[in-house]
Amino acid sequence: SSSSAPPHSLTLPRFAAKRLHSTGQYVARRLRAMHHEDPASLHALRIAIKRLRYALEFFSSVTELKTGSKKQPPILRQLTLLQNILGQLNDLSQAGNWLIAHAGQDASLRAVVTLIGHWHGARYSQLLADLALASRRLEKQLEKLATQLATVTLH
In terms of C-beta distances under 8 Å and separation of at least 24 residues, what long-range contacts does 74-78 make, across chains too? Predict the structure, then answer.
């Protein structure tokens, strides 16, 4: 016997809403698990944010979430901002590790690495402050997103 989908099967907008909701929850968990001093937790958060951002853009055509207008919705602005901040933090962290590894035991190269580290230290501190503020704003946007997703319908 062949089975057909029940009349209450998942519609595309509902599927999109469920997917966006679960991805948003995952981002919220990564935000709570974030440790500023742990590059791996920051990288995991960046990947989660990237997935949510792309999912929001992809599903915007089947949901009432406006993402294609000239002015980005607040959640997409926050996701983009955080993705950029986290990317810069990752770049600085990776560059520092690379420079230290390649300086080896050469005292003059290690001195240069130290100077470069001090030069980037202020930028890194500012990025961490920006990260804290942007993370708090994203938490609020994720709450709004969950509310919006509860009422998703076709355009």
Answer: 74/141, 74/144, 75/138, 75/141, 75/142, 75/144, 75/145, 78/134, 78/137, 78/138, 78/141
Which structure tokens are listed for 100?
């230290």
Is the pTM for the entire model greater than 0.85?
Answer: no
Euclidean distance between CA atoms 28 and 41, whole angstroms: 13
How far is Cα 48 from Cα 32, in angstroms, rounded to an integer?
Answer: 12
Tokens for 77, please give them: 């602005």
The residues of the chain scoring below 50 in pLDDT are 1-2, 68, 154-155
Tell the burial category of 19 from Cβ atoms under 10 Å away from its Cβ (0-12, 13-18, 19+).
middle
Determine the Cα angle at 76 with ends 74 and 82, to 5°.
100
79-99 per-position pLDDT tens digit = 999 999 999 999 888 888 888
